[in-house]
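Retro notes (design track)

What went well: tokenization of the new backbones is finally stable.
What didn't: we kept losing track of which sequence belonged to which structure.
Fix going forward: every design gets posted as structure first, then sequence, in one message. First example under the new rule, 124 residues:
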């Protein structure tokens, strides 16, 4: 009985170690749509690891710098810089999707964003 309990405990510990650190960890495809101004529509691939966000562009994508946090409750707070434009984005993630709003004060643009989770594995 002790061996069975020990084996079960080891199995549960191994499964916990293999699980993502956060339910939001992984790669996400984010589309930013302009509702006001001339900023246009942009799509970004991002990686979330332990609540930290980084740009994960595909070859040929215009580079972007993304910083910010995804809280454990899914609350999103990001700064996105592409060329001279800097956007502030907020919103929330839940399950495999997310949404929110963004603005670029220097260009007088604002809009909404939608995100879809592509993978639960964070990519380099």
């Amino acid at each position: 009985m002790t061996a069975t309990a020990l084996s079960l405990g080891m199995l549960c510990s191994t499964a916990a170690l293999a699980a993502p650190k956060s339910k939001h960890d992984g790669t996400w495809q984010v589309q930013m749509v302009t509702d006001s101004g001339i900023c246009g529509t942009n799509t970004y691939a991002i990686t979330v690891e332990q609540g930290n966000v980084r740009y994960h562009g595909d070859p040929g994508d215009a580079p972007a710098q993304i910083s910010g946090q995804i809280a454990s409750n899914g609350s999103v707070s990001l700064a996105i810089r592409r060329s001279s434009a800097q956007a502030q984005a907020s919103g929330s993630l839940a399950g495999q999707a997310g949404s929110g709003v963004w603005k670029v004060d220097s260009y007088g643009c604002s809009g909404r964003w939608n995100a879809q989770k592509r993978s639960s594995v964070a990519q380099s």
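Added context from the reviewer: The two ends are 43 Å apart (CA to CA).
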